[in-house]
Amino acid sequence: MIKHFLTLEWKQFFRASYFQKGIAIKILLVLGALYFGGSAIMLGAGMFFIMREAIPNTDPIVIVNNVIILWFLFDMVLRFFMQQLPVMNVKPLMVIPIKRNTVIHYLLGKTTLSFFNFIPIFIFLPFSIVLLFNGYPFFNVICWFLSVVFITLSINYLNFLINKNNAVFYILVSTIAILIGVQYFNIYDVFEPIGVAFNALYNQKYLVVLPMALAGLMYYINFKFIRNGFYLDDAVTKKAQKVSATDLSWMNRFGSLAVFLKNDVKMIIRNARPKQVLMMSFLFLFYGLIFYTQDTYKQMPAFLAFASMFVTGGFLMTFGQLVPSWDSEYYKLLMSQNIPYRKYLESKWYLMVVAVAISFVLSTPYLYFGWKIFGMIAAGALFNVGLNSFITLFGGALNRVPIELNVKAKAFSNTQGFNPTQMLIALPKFVLPMLLFYIPYKLINFETGIIVLALCGVLGIVFKNFFLSKIESVYQKGKYKTIAAFAEKA
Amino acid sequence: MISVSNLSKQYKTVQVLHIENLEIPKGQSFGLVGNNGAGKTTFFSLLLDLIQPTTGHIKNNDVLVHESEDWKPFTSSFIDESFLIGYLTAEEYFYFIGELRGQNKADVDALVSQFEDFFHGEILNQKKYLRDLSKGNQKKAGIVGALIGNPEVIILDEPFANLDPTTQIRLKKIIKELAETRGVTVLISSHDLMHVTDVCERIVVLEKGEVIMDLATSEATLRELEAHFAG
């Protein structure tokens, strides 16, 4: 029986759309996977030495144990938003003569092979190997590593429950909130006992049975849960979403654009995929921290300009690059309805502008790094509004990949909206502002660079109608191709 | 209202549609029948400018469909689920279409309320998104969506499929009334010969992309069609 399942999986994997892509994309994907895998391994291997350098008085393994809970929390959040549960494929298996238990074991076993379960192996395996080479006791290290793996698996199964059962979700969120609150207000250092616990896992090698038991228990609970709900109208299907009442009539003040804006807002808040993108674009706000905190980059202000584009441009880039694709599920409707393309594009543009404005307001804490940096973010915001928005919309016209709105994107198996033209279009979004800043900066000074960058943005806004007309004609020209492409999956 | 001349559509070397000449006068209820692959949906897609004709053209109320967009305000359609917006409730969807067609909420409400018995209490006030409705109910919402905004031409692809018997009968009444009393040109396709002969004044049979029969509906039509399709 298992053999059948495996062949099914094999076919699903190799017949998936991302394997049907061109060779160039395959190479890029492999390179990407190698890069991220490599970075994880480097991080894992380097962690030991970095920590020994940075905090010479404490054993690196103790430091890791003290903060590892943060990693697990991060893992949990990441999974909640990114991990796609494999539940949907069960339906055809329900009516053929296979024992239910087998199907469920298969289902759970499949989640075990999730990409997310391999991240810790990529990081902690090299770390453990480095530990071994540095003369740490063999069994302790191995058992500790196994503990990490088992805890990861527990989180994997926990995520399944969280996604299926609201009660679990709320309990978990409130527990974490309370813990963070307790920590934040210095009532009690919750991280200390957790650190002690993880150190105990390392020191007492037999304690590895605890995480093992935990993983086993989580597996069992999941098994029970699915076993009891193994009906089409229960755990195995996607729940029909409750309607969220949204009164957006206040948006009517946007006149003829209001129809589209209202619809876009509903689209974003009612579908899994755009929500995910919204979350990602929020993370981009913190992108600046990587660059502004390091002295190396202070000497290379062109890179600061690069980072500034991301701080306010997260939504613009992640959402905007998929612009017609967001409406791919009902594109035929839009094309046969009484809709001028111009209005459609303009509404998307406003959406991006609003997003940049909100990001800009949220980025005020960057004032901490001084007015120069903040000025750069402001100029970057203007540039995003004035030019990058149009470049993004233009790039969208060349993007004809349908999107399933209410399905979360899978990490790494997702190449939607990923094609060479798209990458070429993306380049000027960063290179242009870097140059526009760097040249006047070299010739005159920092402030001039900022002003030039900002002025270019303003100029873009002034020529808005011109740009929109150009983009509109590109969309018009590609209309039939786009309809055909969107119809393929929908 | 609609005139087709020398229209053809080819994919690579395969010709999927070829209609030399076809005139559909205003207010006619026009039925299109044919087996799978006969070119029904292709024809409707061409009418809606969703695909490009290889040769020839369609004129909708003297507007060249593939060159101007001026046919859009008076033409509406429901072809398949891609004409629905899955994350909206039925009401929101109707209002959305209404706004696109220059109708305010009250107009839409007034129109939709006429279809209460058609909906059978399963569409309105359901607190459900369209994507979570059953196929039949989705279809009902889509069809009524196509009636919003006083269109002069309505195109429905297989409107009877997936509907329950009660709704099929109600839909037939609605379509007849549209053509007879309001002068709306209704184009429908169907695999159900009985329904088409009930509803349409004129029936065109497509086979491999060509018009092979063009009948004014009469008592004998159903038998004629059945004889043809029985081969």
Walk me through the topology.
The complex is a heterodimer of chains A (490) and B (231).
Chain A: H1 2-14, H2 23-54, H3 60-82, H4 91-94, H5 100-112, H6 115-133, H7 138-164, H8 166-184, H9 191-203, H10 209-228, H11 258-270, H12 272-284, H13 287-292, H14 295-298, H15 301-320, H16 323-326, H17 331-336, H18 341-362, H19 371-397, H20 420-443, H21 446-462, H22 464-477, H23 479-489
Helix pairs in contact in A: 2-6, 3-7, 3-9, 5-10, 6-7, 7-8, 7-10, 11-12, 11-18, 12-15, 15-18, 15-19, 15-20, 18-19, 18-22, 19-20, 19-21, 19-22, 20-21
Chain B: E1 2-11, E2 14-24, E3 29-33, H1 40-47, E4 55-60, E5 63-64, E6 75-78, H2 90-100, H3 105-113, H4 116-119, H5 135-145, E7 153-157, H6 165-182, E8 185-189, H7 193-199, E9 202-207, E10 210-216, H8 221-230
Parallel strand pairs in B: 3-8, 3-9, 6-7, 7-8
Antiparallel strand pairs in B: 1-2, 1-4, 4-5, 9-10
Shape of chain A: globular
Oligomeric form of this entry?
heterodimer
Q: What general outline of chain B do the C-alpha atoms trace?
A: globular
Q: What's the arrangement of strands in the largest beta sheet of chain B?
A: 6-7-8-3-9-10
> Mind telling me the CATH superfamily name of chain B?
P-loop containing nucleotide triphosphate hydrolases
The structure class of chain B reads: alpha/beta
Overall structural class of chain A, as computed from helix and strand content, comes to mainly alpha
The H-and-E topology of chain A, N to C, reads as HHHHHHHHHHHHHHHHHHHHHHH
